Amino acid sequence: MNKYLVVTTGAVAFSLASVAAAADAVSPTPFSGLYVGASGGYDIQSNDNGSVLQFDRTGAGKFNDPVLTAGGANAFAPGFCHGRAQGPTFGSPGCENDRNRGSYYGRVGFNKQYGHLVLGVVGEFGKTGIKDYTSGYSITPASYVFERGVNYEGMAALRGGLAFDTTMFYAVGGVGYADIRHRFFTTNTANAFSDNGNARKAGFIAGVGLEKFLTRHVTFGVEYSYHDYKDKNYRVLVSQGTALATNPFVLAPSSTTVIRRSDDNFRWNSLRATVGYHF
Prior knowledge:
Elements: H1 2-25, E1 33-45, E2 53-56, E3 79-81, E4 84-85, E5 95-96, E6 101-114, E7 117-128, E8 131-138, E9 142-164, E10 167-186, E11 192-195, E12 199-213, E13 218-230, E14 236-239, E15 257-261, E16 265-278
Antiparallel strand pairs: 1-6, 1-16, 2-15, 3-8, 4-5, 6-7, 7-9, 8-9, 9-10, 10-12, 11-14, 12-13, 13-16, 14-15
């Protein structure tokens, strides 16, 4: 009889332990607390059709001046493209599209769950490989290419969501901070060119996502986010160099020309997978 009592008592104790473990594994507020994570995916830029180069020939900073030859012809008559010029001549061999690339970020955050409602903060830091171009062609012939990319990007944001058991649907929005890398390329070897380098810009980031616990501590998810920065201060100064005095960039009313791109918005969309560890 004692033998059966021991076996029965052991079975009950094992069952109670299993129930307790299961209850511990599925907390009533699983999203509450500190977490760290990482994300990776692909970034796609918004369409910047119509982007051109603009010129300041008077030093007034208005960038609405034409660049004219000594005979009065438009030196940029061949036109512009919203991509990277592949050679000095418009249309041959063509204009490369903006480069959409992968991205990778690390993050840390804190949530507080109230029933189905989850509120929190999140910080993120990482890099995207996207590159945005605008090009112009002169009648020389020559091409002039403005490139911008991202050395790094950070974010501080609020996050709010609705949780159902171990799954949460959420929205996120906050302030972004990006170190935007600028570069200038030209096939013009006569004039001299100088620029004002990189720029650190504040912007905003907003998105939506889904996150689900795979184990007691580990989550997996997908997230879409939109990134928007006002990037309008990059300039290229053109001076005479070895060009003749009749060069369109140095003719009166000024001995120099300042060039900028017309599109001062650097925007892109991100679609990423996320993984997190909740403490």
